[in-house]
Amino acid sequence: MIKLDEKEKLIADLKIAKEEVNLVKTRLNKANSKKESWFRQKSAIGKEIKSRIREILNFKKKRNSLTSDVKKTKEKRDELNKQIGGEVKTLNKLKEHFDSQKRLENPQALKKNIEAIELKIETEPMSFQREQAIMKDLNKLRKKYSEVKHVSEEFKDFKTKRTTITSIKKEANKLHKDIQERARESQKHHESLVELSKEIDLLRKKEKTANEEFLDEKKKYLNVNDELKEKLEELKKINKILEKYNIKVEKVAELKKKKSLKELEKEVQTKIKKKQKLTTEDILVMQSKK
């Protein structure tokens, strides 16, 4: 049999244990909130880092593609410049040769004179002597033209070569502009890549801080959780004792109330014996006895 005082102590211990469990639960919830908050921050930063990495890979792919294009275009341009160099040498030789032929009569002028004389012979009436004289002059012109007509062909070659060089230069310049444009675009992608790398470095530092805070809060959470387990174990032990002796909290409270009432009755009886004045509370105690 367990005494009332012992029962009261168990009930008091139960109350304290429950209050402590509730307090620890509150602390555990707060610790969990902090822990989860840092975990969410860490996860959000991690996602941001992954997003930046995807952007970096995209910029790197574009930059490398442009760099490859620039390299190939440079090779084409250099090949054209090499071709231009060869064509210019040929053109200079043609020019030198052409300049050396300038002392000769103009083949175009000779050809025009020949055609004019041939037309005159065919269309104008003239004496035999006159025709013979003109034919003699015509033959001289034809001979001269035969000697210098190659100059006209060489001049055509000269003009054709110059046109070819101009066309190749135009194509080379176009390639050069394309190289510059692609190089600028490639540089922009590279600069974006560098900036993103800097951002990732900063984000990694933030992620590290968030992870450290998360681990610290997790440690606190686990400590509080262990404390809660201990408090729950204490509460469990008290409940087991109460169950063992079939002690109900309501019954103990009722017994305690009865005990208090008996003590009050004794006090009122003592007052009556001593003929002391009774208070309203004393009268109520006497009435409750009836």
Query: Overall pLDDT, averaged?
Result: 84
Taking the sheet with the most strands, its summary is:
none
| Rg result | 58 Å
| Helix amount | over 70%
Q: Given the C-alpha coordinates, what overall shape results?
A: rod-shaped
The unreliable regions are: 251-257
- Tally of helical runs: 5
Counting DSSP E segments of at least 2 residues, the number of strands comes to: 0
Structural class: mainly alpha
Beta fraction = under 5%
Number of domains: 2
The N- and C-terminal alpha carbons lie at a distance of: 31 Å
What order do the SSEs take from the amino end to the carboxyl end, as H and E?
Answer: HHHHH
Describe this structure in words.
The structure is a single chain. With 290 residues, this protein is mainly alpha-helical. About 2% of the residues have low confidence.
